[in-house]
Amino acid sequence: FPNFTASDRYENEVSLHQFWGQAILLDYSAGWCGPCKTVAEDAQEMWSEQREDGFVIIHAMVDGYSTGADSDFLNDWADSYDLTFPVLGEGEIEDVFYDLIDVGLGEGYVPYMLVLGKDMTLRSIYVGGEYEREIASEIEDILSE
């Protein structure tokens, strides 16, 4: 999976590939998206259950409400859902999102969740909410490899 960098809620640069060796759920979401909010409500619990085993969730916010996903928006998003894993905004995340769509790996809908293996290979794509069980099971499989 291509590397990208983006700013987190603390305005630190974060690279996707710094998480090499972990199972990753890369969740592209937007602040105006109802299903994205539902996914965010359950994300912290999912991460807490498996983070010690090498799992990370990254919320890649492709759009805020109207001003973009700047650090103020990222802080509001993370605080609203008590998220302590990386929540990223401004940077290359939108480019990667649209590149995936351009090559036929999506239609531009969010939430757009990608499961990446420990070697950064793309394992699965989930569009929309209500896939928590499937994703959790797949993450367990990756972590047991």
Choose one word for the global shape.
globular
Sketch the topology as an H/E string, one letter per element. Answer: EEEHEHEHEEH
Radius of gyration, in angstroms, nearest whole number: 14 Å
Summarize model confidence as the mean pLDDT: 93
Q: Helix segment count?
A: 4
Largest sheet: 7 strands, mixed
What share of the residues lie within helices?
A: 25-40%
Strand portion: 25-35%
How would you describe this structure to a colleague?
The protein has 145 residues and is an alpha/beta fold. It contains 4 helices and 7 strands. The chain has helices at residues 34-50, 71-80, 93-102, 132-144; strands at 5-8, 13-15, 23-30, 55-63, 87-91, 112-116, 122-127. Strands 2-1-5-4-3-6-7 form a 7-stranded mixed β-sheet, with helices on both faces. α1 (34-50) links the parallel β3 and β4. The radius of gyration is 14 Å and the shape is globular.
Please summarize what this structure is.
This protein has 145 residues and is α/β, with parallel strands linked by helices. The protein is built from four helices and seven strands, in the order βββαβαβαββα. It has helices at 34-50, 71-80, 93-102, 132-144; strands at residues 5-8, 13-15, 23-30, 55-63, 87-91, 112-116, 122-127.
